[in-house]
Amino acid sequence: xxxxxxxxxxxxxxxxxxxxxxxxxxxxxxxxxxxxxxxxxxxxxxxxxxxxxxxxxxxxxxxxxxxxxxxxxxxxxxxxxxxxxxxxxxxxxxxxxxxxxxxxxxxxxxxxxxxxxxxxxxxxxxxxxxxxxxxxxxxxxxxxxxxxxxxxxxxxxxxxxxxxxxxxxxxxxxxxxxxxxxxxxxxxxxxxxxxxxxxxxxxxxxxxxx
Length: 210
Prior knowledge:
Layout: E1 2-5, E2 11-15, E3 18-22, E4 38-41, H1 51-60, E5 65-68, H2 70-76, E6 84-86, E7 92-95, E8 98-103, E9 121-124, E10 128-130, E11 144-148, H3 156-166, E12 170-174, H4 184-194, E13 198-200, E14 207-209
Parallel strand pairs: 3-4, 4-5, 5-6, 10-11, 11-12, 12-13
Antiparallel strand pairs: 1-2, 1-14, 2-3, 7-8, 8-9, 9-10
Helix pairs in contact: 3-4
């Protein structure tokens, strides 16, 4: 499986000429979803869900489909009739040749005064987990964790403890558009030293074989 990092929380997974994209949001590239056979969206916040990015991907490939939770599906299903699938915690499905399991229900707490929205994470082929905006721990081992390192809803101690709890073989940074290059060495050293897993970072457009 090939992992390609896009800007912020968006990633592309490819295998055998087929591709799946997760969370092509406003911060990601305009063509982040172009060429994808399957698009997964974790929740409705603009840095994870952008209708223009989705439309570009769906129009580029008339066979492309979207899997997402109800709050997002309600916003876009009319634009793509028959091509948007609603999923929730515990669901399983096949997309672009990948087996996907859905984990989680709620977005992490930003502030007690802000109502929590729904959020799901996706475990792809029982190996790669993208949690969206939550620190959801799947009920099975994870090889590769997509790690939200910088967000209005987290702090580095929580990020480190999340890696420790999931116990992946490796953790790749996502949700990092708000993290300046000046601060990256601090995050790299602390997560790498304390998380208990190999901590890795890809620049947007860079790929790695898993």
